[in-house]
Specification:
- The protein has 2 domains: 81 residues, DksA, coiled-coil domain (Four Helix Bundle (Hemerythrin (Met), subunit A), Up-down Bundle), CATH 1.20.120; 39 residues, no CATH class.
- The chain is an all-alpha fold and 120 residues long.
- The two termini are 36 Å apart.
- Helices cover 73% and strands 0% of the residues.
């Protein structure tokens, strides 16, 4: 992969990482600021708890994405970015542009998904 392509993906990943980390910090502050202690109505508490649960699920997914971004940034540094972790063939630029955090080519990812579907 050319150096300018690697720099493009590095910038893309770093921008997404900064956005997610900022969003995570904001969420923590929001959750700390919304206390259900002063809410006497059980229905209000249930609504707040349900809302928090949804936020936690979203942040959990974002946490996994942050880990993938860090992994892909490390792959850029060690020269393995854009190489499929299964077959060790180059991942197409189209796939990387669509999903910069991917570590598998289309064929290997499709095989993995088919296996997961059959097993689980």
């Amino acid at each position: 992969m050319k150096e300018e392509d690697l720099e493009y993906f590095r910038q893309l990943l770093e921008t997404e990482l900064a956005f997610l980390l900022d969003k995570a910090g904001t969420t923590v502050l929001e959750l700390l600021g919304t206390s259900s202690d002063g809410e006497p109505d059980p229905l209000d508490r249930a609504t707040i708890d349900d809302s928090r649960s949804g936020i936690y699920r979203i942040r959990s997914r974002e946490s996994r994405l942050i880990k993938k971004i860090w992994s892909r940034l490390a792959a850029i540094e060690d020269g393995t970015y854009g190489i499929c972790e299964d077959c060790e063939e180059p991942i197409s630029m189209e796939r990387l542009k669509a999903r910069p955090v991917t570590s598998y080519c289309i064929a290997c990812k499709s095989r993995r998904e088919a296996y997961e579907k059959a097993v689980g």
